[in-house]
Amino acid sequence: MLSKSGTVSRYILGLMFTVFGANGLMMAFNNGVGFIPMPPPPPQMIPIMTGFMATGYLMTLVALLQFISGVLFLTGFYINAGIVFLGPIVVNILLIHVFAEREGLGMGIFTTVLFVILVASRWADFRPMVRR
Q: What's the whole-model pTM score?
């Protein structure tokens, strides 16, 4: 049962991160214009987004990792690499919505649950990393 739910989670995450990663890359290289219009951030997110944008590279890197991981999930190649790339991003998606912007909390929880199911379905591959 876990392998079927892991496969479903992998495809949903793959679709989500491929689309949003491609949109982020398009925004990075097209003066902030992507194929999915982004609404203005709520007031509490403006300082956070300003900090992310001020780095000059962070949002592009995140979009690139999302896109690559999404493609890896959809193709079935190097799935574990995609999991490693997306782990910190998924944690940040959840925590941003927990601590700063509650409107997207449902989607943050949904993404995190899918990610946990995917990791659990492939736990045998990651178990050696957490042994003593």
A: 0.92
User: Angle at the Cα of 95 (from 113 to 99), degrees rounded to 5?
Assistant: 130
Q: What is the pLDDT of residues 84-105, one digit of tens each?
A: 999 999 999 999 999 999 999 9
3 HSE (CA, 13 A, CB side): 1
Supply the DSSP symbol for 39.
P
For residues 1 and 109, is the Cβ–Cβ distance under 8 A?
A: no
Q: What is the CA radius of gyration of the chain?
A: 15
* CB atoms inside a 10 Å sphere around CB 52: 14
The one-letter amino acid code at 100 reads A
Rounded CA-CA distance 21/76 in Å is: 18
Start-end of H helices in the chain: 2-29, 46-54, 58-75, 79-99, 105-121, 123-126
Return the DSSP state at 40. P
Would you say 90 and 112 are in contact if contact means Cβ atoms under 8 Å apart?
yes
Number of Cα atoms under 13 Å in the Cβ half of residue 114: 22
